[in-house]
Each structure stands twice: as structure tokens, then as C-alpha cells.
Amino acid sequence: MDSQANFDVNEAIKHYDSDPAQIATPDAPRELQDFEHEPERLQEEGAVINAELNAVVDAVADSPEAITRSSNFDSLQFLLRFSSYVPPTTLGKILDLVSSALSGQVDAIHADIQANDQDALQMHKTLLEMYAFLLRWAISAAETRDAQETPTASGGRGKAAKHKAAKDGKWDATAQIETALDRISRVLRLDLARIFVTTSERDTFIGLLTKPIYYIMENSEKTGRIKNKAIRDHSFRVLAMAVKRHGHAYTAQILITQALFFYPHLSEPMAELLHIIANSYDYPQLTEDVLREVSDKDFDSADKKGPSSVSAFLIRISELLPDVVMKQMTSLAKLIDNESYTLRMAMIDVCGNSVIMISKQTEDQRSEESKKKMDSFLDELESRFLDINPYCRARVMQVWMKLCDLEQRLSKRRKKAAKYAALSLKDKTSNVRRNAIKLLTKLVETHPFTTFPDDEGLLSPENTRKKLEDYERQIQALLPPEPEKPAAEEQTLDEEMLQDATQVEGATSANPQSPDEMTDGQKLETMRKLAEQAATVEKLDILDKSRKYYTDMLRFIEVVDDAADNVMQLLSAKNKSEVIEAMDFFVKINAYKIPNARNGIRRMLRLIWTKGNSDEGKGVQTHLIECYKDLFFVPNPLWKSEQVDDYIKNNMISLTYGTTPAELTSLEQLLSTMMKQGMIKDSVVQKLWATYGYQKKALSRTMRRGAIIVLGMLALAKPEIIVNEMELCLRIGLGELGRRDLGLARYTCIALSRISAPSGKQSDSTAAAQVAKLPNAHAVLVKLASLCESVSDDKEWFGVAEQAISAIYVLSKHPDVLCSEILRRKTKHVFAHQAPSRPTSSDSGAGDPMDVDTPETAVAEPPQPRKQNPALALSQLLFIVGHVAIKQIVHLELCEMEFKRRKAEKQTKTAPTPRKSMTSEVQTPAKKGRKRASAKNQTPAPEDVDELEMMAGPSEDDITDHIAAIRERELLYGPDSLLSNFGPLVRDICFNNTSYNHPTLQAQAALCLAKLMCVSSEYCEKNLELLLTMMDRSKDPVVRSNLVIALADMAVCFNQLIDENESHLYRRLNDGDPSVKRTCLMTLTFLILAGQVKVKSELAKMAKCMEDSDGKIKDMAKMFFTELATKDNAIYNQFIDMFSTLSADRELHEDAFKKIIKTLAGYIEKDKHAKMLSRKLADRLPRADSEREWNHIAFTLGQLQHKDEEITKMVAEGFRVVQASA
């Protein structure tokens, strides 16, 4: 018979903790000991292992005491020693064996405890210790083996890894470990004090059962075991029972604290464990002890893992056990000012969770002490808005967002939070600004001003002020009239009177009567007065509270409304998540009727131009469209379809009210994009046409204008919208209504030009199609020509004429011919001695009269010709001349492109086919009821074809040279050119500005001169000096702005002529009028960034604009330098020149100089560039002529990241020298 194992639990644990592989197993079977020096052979000898293991299993199954035999015990110890070599199934069998045997022992012990057999209980002690030791070893071995075989973090964890392991045939010990943990929990349910008499024996045994659980949790970063709910629940139950019933609290405190500092992945599991121990097992003392120990910990500044892990633990435990945490706030308070920002962030969450816990208490549960603590927590949260770390500032706003969802509204605190959030919008950190926007949005969304139903929960300042004024009037009406103030000499009071109690008005008299002396009538009267006074006091109290309510409401609205201005600036932020949050903010406050929301929504329009070459850019565009869709295109779901169409139509028209040209351009892009995506139904388009053509009753001009503006925008994506209703455009916009409202006519011209969109603006569906061109006799072109010749002194005429001429050049086959006729007739009108007749609507050279279905009254001539101011008439003529000249250049360029396209098509075709003429007849719906043009009118088409055939022969360079020659010599100097007659006239008017002193005439003459100069380099060279003189000396800022833009156009066309005179352009940066300065800055920005103008020393003048008093100029200048910084080291190359110019400028304030230099230095990102600039500036230090110059150099060196000790030493030495000389 085998000898008994000599097992001492303390010695066994000692050897195991030292090195399990060195534990001696002398009584193991010889068959197993043969593998001791070659353990790797165990993987191949499964049969031997199974034979020996099965013998142990059979013995233990017969009697659990069999484990005490040395051969059986050493057999299991031997296999566990080499667990990494034995087959996985062997480990599984050992786990099953030990768990089953331990379960049998539990049943036996439970029976003996029930029988109160003390002798038998002592016999179980050794068996429990041996099985517990083997179970600890087996679980740890299984965990180690599983960690080696489980994929790493990149390969996956948890269920996915488990399924993969099962699929690969690998052993998964989860089920067996779960069973083992269940057996351990059964052991802990026993009254172990009956078996382990001394505390040390019990603690040792409890350690055998709990240490494998801690090992499982520590190892779960690799195995993911703790994520398994069953394993986690069993583990927590075992530890909780050990703490509650078996004195494991102190050990658990030490191990939990160590886990927090060394195993970051256990932060939240440990908090959940403490939550179970405190709630399910009523032992919160352990949580309190852990919190105290954590708060007393000194964290090393270099330690990043510890504070992060503790922070996650504190946040989670404050969510689960806020009442326990709040009791330890005295200890934890020291962490709120800890150097580690992660700990400060955690304490911010702790304060927030404590506030949430207190706010959920009922009034009966909430003591005065709790209210004081809540106030202190809120005070701390408010102070953290100003934390030095941006992550803490962002976190406190996230906590406040959670507080906004509480039923207790915290109205007084909300106002402060709103103010802090508004201030945070100017924070330097993007994350802080983004969270500030989110907090403001949340504050508005959950605002507490919902007491009065008639407010409907809205935050309209107009209604709020009206209510406030109403309550003020009611209060004043109820207050008694103020007594007249005595004269100065009578204002002396008896001291005794001050000591008397204040009496109710009307209740005092010289000799007050007692109730017994009053008659019944007097008593009733007195009671009535007292009841009235009480009712008045009660009503005053209610009114006063209502007044305070609306006063707080108005202050909150003002804070949010003011903050909206800063949020508008963030719509231009680089961080796209900020931009999206800002858009959501304006959508939200618009729903609550806050005034500034409309400005923000309009400012959002420019985001449609966000570059979409990245996911962020596309996200901004998509989000903008969604915002506008929600705002203006989502009606009440209960409405009928016709109501829905009216709602959308009215909203689209309202978007055009009060818009700037830039906003209209952005709106055009937005609506055309939505039209392409099918978001606007045809029924809405029909509603827009109905509004545009409505004539039964009076309709506001803005409404009709808005309808055609929107229709023109939609036509960019779908030109058929205008084509199908061309007759309506002719009857309304180009008819009598258009003549009375020139703005309507102007927008109608724009819409008509969308019939054939210019190059670059066609929709995808129409881009490939041939551009439709109309003959000059077409009704549309006749009407457009008539508009240009109309007699009007209204300044809106210029806008109408501009769009009419532009539409002619887009739609006409031969726009030059038609415009020549317009010029001839307009010239006769201007220079005729007698009153000219009104220009007819039909072309004198056309064979057929205009045939269009319009009322006769719409084109009837007035009985008397209108007289016009001669200066304005001449101004209009010059405007037409200039605009026709510019459009003719564009027309020539399009002709060149068409010639080259056709030549390329011809070369690609193997068999040439007859070419379709540009001037071939295009049938359009507008020709309904109209006769076809006669063959006589179509005769120019073959000539055009012959000319194209001739042009297609030479190379593309020959075509370009031919077009350039036409532009240079024929437009302004050709013998048959109509424009050649106006060149000298325009120059004479501009030169003799005293003779022609009408301001409009001078402005139009200057504009015409500039446009003609863009046509021909010869004409430009002759008149350049005159133009520069006008740009410098003109008193009209509009003229100066126009000439700045014109000079920029000439710099693009004739760079060699303008290059020497660019200083005149830069000089306008110092113009006294902000509009001229803005125009100049914008123009130079385009020229420099597009590479049309070389960057020169004048760049310092643009740098000064970064500190201009005009906010738009300042922002534009900063945007320019931000873009310039991406262009081939441009700022680095010009840095020294800019510094020299700025330093020498005595008019530049010191603070402005420093801000400019600091901004410019921020663009020097490369270390080698910073070092080279620093060396160049350092060489100037000894040569500095003045302290001011030296200070400028020293400051600039401080802004450059040179890291040069020698330069630093030079600065220090130079500073002392300057002070000594002073």
C-alpha cells in the first residue's frame, strides 16, 4: 500500500510561489519520471499520461482520501509541473478531477457540520488544503497555457477568439474554469471556522481559493476571460463571499489597490467588484478603505499608467456607488488639485456623479448637509471651467451635459454654466470649443423656462420682453402711491417714530377703536379691507416671482444669443467636427426662436464650398444639406401635399430675402445640389412658377423676385425648368412687370441664361450635350436687347443691362452682331439732337416680326418718349460698351475652345462626317405658336462651316494666335470695329473729369476704360498711366475698388505691363476706406495664391492687415497667410524682408508688431528654417542702432524655435549692454 503524502500547506505554497517547476515529486510513477529531463516528449506520449492519470481518477472516484497517497498526489503535481508540455486534454482532466473531488468533500463536510461531528471535521482539513492547492495550481496552469495560445489584441479576444480556437481544434478551458469557480463558491458557503480554528490557517486556505481568481483577472488582458459574464460573476461572487464571511477584506484591499496601479484593464472590473461587495453583500467598508488608500497615494510625475488606471476606477465607482464615494470626498479632495490632469478629470466626473446622486433624492431624503455638499460640488465644477489643462476643461463641459438631463434643473447654476461655455468658445483648443458648443446646445435644449404654457417652451426675446414689461405694469399698478417727499427743512424724523412698528395702511388712526367698540358694519368693512390687502400681497408675490422668472429667462437668452456670434466664427474652423457641431447649434437654437440663429444659418451657406476631396469635406457638405433640409424642407407630417408644397416654396423664397451676392452664390450651389439629388419635387417647382406669374392680386416684389431667383438656381441642375416656361418669363420678367421692377427683370435675365449654362456650370446630365444657341430674331433675344435699350434713370438699370448682355452672349448664335445693333441704337439715342424714338423690339435686319404670345399692352409704346438725363444716358452707353468688350473676349475664348474641340473630334474619327454647325437651328419649347425662321436667315450657317473647316486645318497654336490677333488688333483698332469709336471717347471723359463731372458718368467711364484696357495690350499701355492716376486720386471708393480689380485683371492678361506698377496695387492696402482695402486685399490674395503675381517685399503691408481695426480685413489677412504657408516656403523666403519693413514702420504699434511677428513665426515649422532665420537675425544684434530695433530682433528670436544656446547668450549680453547705455 502506498505511503501517505507528507503535505504541509505552508511549505507547498512557499515552494509554489518560488518556482512550481522545482517542486519535488519523488513518489510519482517511474513512467512519468522518465520524462523529467525531456519534458517535451510528454506531447507525444499521451497514452502513458492517460494511463497514469486514469489510475488517479479511479482512485479518487472511489475515495476522496486517495489524494493523500503520495503516488497519486505526486502524479498530479508532476503533470502540473510540466503543464506547458502535456496535452491540453490532460489539464482538462486534472481540473475536472480536482473540482469533482472538492465538490464531494463539500458535501461530506456539510453533512458532518449538520451532524456536529467535530472529529470528522478536523479530518477534512488536510483534504481541503490539498484539493485547494491542486485547484489553484491547475487553474493557474490552464490560464498560462491559454494565454500562450490565445491571439494577441490584434488577433482578437473574447468570443471571437474562443470560436477561432474551437475551430482550430485548440483547447478552451472556460467551461472547466467556470465549474471550478462554482465549486470554490460552494466551499466558501461552509462554516470554515469549524474546520480552520486559527486565523492564519483560515487566511492561508482562503488565499488558495482566491489567488487563482486574481490571476485570472490579471491575465484577462491576454485571454479576455473576465469579459465572459459567467466567469466574471463567479469570480466576483467568490471574492465577495471571502470578504464578507472569511476575513479576506484586508488582503482584498491590498490586491485591488495593486491591480489598479499595475493592471489598467482591471480599473472598471474592480469598481464593479466593489459595487457587488457593497450592495449585494452589504460590505461598503472595503470600498471606503480602497478609496482612502488611493487618495493617499503619491503619484510620480513620470507615471502615466497609474493615474490613468486610477482615474477610470474613480469614474466607474462614482457611477456605481456615489453615496459611498461622497462619504470619502474629504480624502479624495486632495486629488482635485493633483498635477496629473487625468486624476483631475476623474474628480470632475466624481463631483458630477455625486451631484446626480443628490439630485435624485427626494426632499425628505435630502438633508441640509447634502445640499451644502451639492453646492460645493457645483462650485468645484464651475472652477474647473478655468483649469489649465484643455482635457479637464472639456471634461467639465461633458459632465455639465449630463447634469442638464436631471429633473432638478439647477436654474441658478445653468446661467453660470452658459456664461462659462460662451467664454470657452474662444479657447485655443479645438476639443474645448467643440464641447462648449455642445454644452450650449444642451442648455438650450433642456432649458428650465417651461412654466407658462403660452410660451410654448420657446426662447423668443421679443415675447419675453413684452411679458416682462406687462408684469412690471401690473406690479406698479398694485403698489400704493409713493408719499410726497417733504421739503428739505421738513425732513427731520423723531427717533421714537423709527422705533414704532410699521402698520398696515388704512389701519391706523389717531384713536384706534377696539373690536368691542366697533359696529357690525365697521367690523365687516375692516375685514373686507384686510382681505383685500392680503389678496394684494399674495398677487404681488406671484407677480414678483413671474417677473424674476422672465428676467432670468431674458438673461439666459442674451447669453446664448451673444454666444452665437462666436459660434458663427467657428463655422470657419479647420476642425470639421467643430463645424458640424456649430451647424447643429444653429439648427437647435433656431427651433427655440433665438434671433441670432437666422444669421448663423445664413452664414452656414458658405460651407457648401468646403472641399469635398476628403471624408471630412464631404461630411460637412452632406451635413449642411441635411440641416437645410430639416429646417426648410420637412413640413408637418399631418399636412396635405398641397400645403407641403406651399410650405417648401415659401421657405425657399424666404432664403433669398436680404441676402448678399456672396450668399446668393452659395445658396445657388446648395439648391442646385439638392435639385441634382432629387430633393426638390416638380410640384414645388410648379408652385414657384405660379408665384412668379401671379397677377390676379397685388404680390410683393420680394416674393416674385425670390421665386425667379430660386427657379434660376434650380435651372443650373435642370435647364428644362426655364425652357418649359420661357413664355412666362417673356411675359412677366421681360414684360411690363419687369420694366416697372428692374430687379425682377435682372433676375429673369439670369434665369434665362440658364437655358444654356455657360462652360463649367452645366449639370452632369447636360454637360456632354451640345449647347443650344438661338438666332438673333428669337423672342428671348429681342426682349433682352430691348431691355438694354430701355430708357431709365434708375441705378438698377446697370444690373439689368449687365445680365441681359451676359444672357445674350450665352444664348445667341451671333451675340456680337446683336450687341452691335444694340450699341448703334443706344448711341443714336444718346447723341441724337432730337428726342429719339423708343427702340423697337424687332431687329431691323430680320425678315420676320417677333411672334410671341404676350399681351399687346406689355409691349405698347408710351404716348410720349421719356426724357433722360444726358449724363446718365452716356453712362449707360459706356457701361454697355465696356461690358460688351469683356463678354466679347470670353466669346472669343469659347470659340477657340470649340474650334479645338472640333478639330480633335475630326482627328479621332476614322471617317470624317459632316460637321454640325454651331448655328444650326435649335428647336425649343419657346417656339410654340411661332413660325420657323426663313431660309434667308439661315444663310450664314454654311459660311460658318467653311470658316471652321479652314480653321481646323492649322495646328492648335495657329488657332490660338489667330484668336489673339483678333482680340489685340481688330476689336479696338479694326476698321470695321464698332468698339474702336469709343476708345478715344472714354479716355477723353476720364481725362477731363472737371468737364465731365457727373459722379455716375465718371464711375462708368473709369469702369469702361478698365474693361477696354483688358482687351488690347496696346490700348492698355497707352492708358495705364491715366488709370493709375485715377486709382490714386479718385474720391469715389467705388471707382478705386473697381480699378483695383481691373488692375488685377490686367496683371493676368498683360503681366509684363503691370509688373512694374504693382506698387500702386499694394498702396491701396493703406486706403482710408475699408471697402477699398478689403477689395485690394482680396484681389492680392487671389493673384499671389494663383501665382499671377510674384511675392515681393510689399508682403509686409499685407501682414499689417492682420492687426487691422476691421475684423473682416483681419480674418482675410490671416486666411491669406495660412494658405501662403503651404506654398513652397513662401513665408520663410520673405520673413526677413517682412521683419525689416515692419520693424522700420514707426506708425505700427508695439503690440501689433509682436502679434504679427508671433503669427508669422508660427508658420515656420521646419527646424532648419528656424535656425537659419535665427542666425540671420542674430547677426543684426550687434549692428542694432536703437533699443527699439534690438528689442524687435530679440522678440523675434524668442518666437523662432532655434534652440541655439549661443544666440540665447547673445540676447542676454545685448540686453545688459542696452540697459547700461540707457
Blueprint (SSEs and pairs):
Elements: H1 9-18, H2 30-33, H3 46-62, H4 70-81, H5 88-115, H6 118-149, H7 158-167, H8 174-188, H9 199-223, H10 229-245, H11 249-262, H12 267-279, H13 285-295, H14 305-320, H15 322-327, H16 329-332, H17 341-359, H18 368-383, H19 390-403, H20 411-424, H21 430-445, H22 461-478, H23 495-499, H24 520-570, H25 576-591, H26 596-603, H27 615-632, H28 641-654, H29 661-676, H30 682-692, H31 701-715, H32 720-723, H33 726-731, H34 736-740, H35 742-753, H36 764-767, H37 779-788, H38 796-811, H39 815-831, H40 856-859, H41 870-908, H42 940-952, H43 956-970, H44 982-991, H45 999-1013, H46 1017-1033, H47 1037-1053, H48 1055-1058, H49 1062-1067, H50 1074-1089, H51 1099-1104, H52 1111-1124, H53 1130-1144, H54 1150-1162, H55 1167-1178, H56 1187-1199, H57 1205-1221
Helix pairs in contact: 1-6, 3-4, 3-5, 5-6, 5-8, 6-9, 8-10, 9-10, 10-12, 11-13, 12-14, 14-17, 17-18, 17-19, 19-21, 20-21, 20-24, 21-25, 22-24, 24-25, 24-26, 25-26, 25-27, 28-30, 28-31, 29-31, 30-31, 31-35, 35-38, 37-38, 37-39, 38-39, 38-41, 39-41, 41-43, 41-45, 44-45, 44-46, 45-46, 45-47, ...
